[in-house]
Design brief:
It contains nine helices and seven strands, in the order H-H-H-E-H-E-H-E-E-H-E-H-E-H-H-E. By secondary structure, it is an alpha/beta fold. It has a domain of 184 residues: Rossmann fold (3-Layer(aba) Sandwich), CATH 3.40.50.150. Strands 3-2-1-4-5-7-6 form a seven-stranded mixed sheet, sandwiched between helices. Helix 2 crosses helix 4 and helix 8 packs antiparallel against helix 9. The longest helix is centred in the C-terminal third of the chain and has 21 residues.
Length: 274
Amino acid sequence: MQYDPIKRKLGRVFNATPFMRKLFYRLLDVLLLRSWHIRKAIKQWVKDNKGPKVVLDAGSGFGQYEYYMASKFKNWTIKGVDVKKEQIDDCNGFFQKIGYNKVSFAVADLTKFSEAETYDFVLCVDVMEHIEEDEQVLKNFCDSLKTGGFLLISTPSDQGGSDVHHHDHEEGEGEHSFIDEHVRDGYGVEEIIGKMKTAGFSRTEVYYQYGKPGKIAWRLSMKYPIVMLNASYLFFILLPFYYLITFPFVLLLNYMDVRKKHKTGTGLIAKAWK
């Protein structure tokens, strides 16, 4: 199932005006459960870390989290990096247009990107599952953080992350991922803790997101619409009506997921301190 072409299509639709782009960010914040967990974790960190900060968003995509952080924390200097030049150019243009001069974007390969002792906070959302050399990337994050700096990762878990299903091998079918671009289906808790400690982090905290409520919310808010759009882009016309019906349920399920602790889940929030 292809995800990136649909993301590019949505980006073009919502990039017509700054108002539409801001509306797009707001919709992502509300619909995407991972955004709820990320924003909660950032707010918790900020309670004990006031004042100006230098921040790296490693895998900035559409610039959703740059917009959130720059809007809420005016004295932060934020750099977003991504491997896709078209997204970097697009984000630089948009943030310059709206006057967010403390935000910048650059093309970078995270397996080679390292800026020693530069950042107070590194954010990495839905990126690690795309990178084979994950241990090198975690080491680069650690090297790039100042002493005491904070790393925040959101990534699929090995408890069904990437919507993996197990099929009967006698039928000639193997495991597959809903997101074809992933190089791994997810991390185990102890696995990612071990890799972060090997990279040089002194303290870690890892917990599940996308528990029972979150899994239902993800299907309603993301999986089913993407399945429809993969079938035909004509479903773009039906999307507003679909979300009109499902939105209240998604909102409630997201709230439930972010409020409770989960014994298991299809996503992980991983925190680490240098």
